[in-house]
Amino acid sequence: MGRAFEFRKNRKMKRWSAMAKAFTRIGKDIVMAVKEGGPNPESNSRLRAVIQNAKAVNMPKDNVERAIKKATDKDTANYKEVLFEGYAPHGIAILIETATDNNNRTVANIRSYFNKCNGTMGTQGSVEFMFDHTCNFRIPSEGIDIEEMELEFIDFGAEEIFADEDGILIYAPFESFGAIQKELENRGIEILSSGFERIPQVTKQLTEAQVADVEKLLEKIEEDDDVQNVYHTMEEA
Prior knowledge:
Family: Belongs to the TACO1 family.
Structural class: alpha+beta
Domain TACO1/YebC-like N-terminal: 4-73
Subcellular location: Cytoplasm
Keywords: Cytoplasm, DNA-binding, Transcription, Transcription regulation
Protein name: Probable transcriptional regulatory protein ACFPVY_05240
């Protein structure tokens, strides 16, 4: 198995565990998708993907419809996607994806977490190059031959396809999202969920005490309402 498989296995139970936080993230994703491409999922592929993800975490349909309606209100603030970079203690690179309606607040908060936990906030591009920006799709496994699918979807950018207990996962470079989404839909293959991840190219092993230092910073960052995802180069057990 490749890096995507190991990455997914290690992260599976660690992040996105709080349902309320998942709903908040998806609510912001809906606002950004509607502001960008309109409220009709038929003509807005980004919104279509977010609705699939809402179903995957059992977000009630009423919540989704309410979020779409709210996003069409011109008085609803749009969220801007901002990437933050830095180092935790012991040389661990951290990449933070945020969705914010107040960048000054978010910058101040993220900087304070680094300062309080002996980390260093970096400049743009200081650690982003250490991560591969990928897209992924989860589809049902019934009736799918993985080897055959791998051969066919290489042409659309797929790099790694594997199965777990929840279905089949397809990983590809970030830029291949649209092509793979379109091909899956053209073939009538249900997309259970989809998204983007940043996979570290190299990870670093730490002692138990050092891991605790890094986890302290990660927890503070992940509790922030503006934070969507956090990635790092620490090797996870």
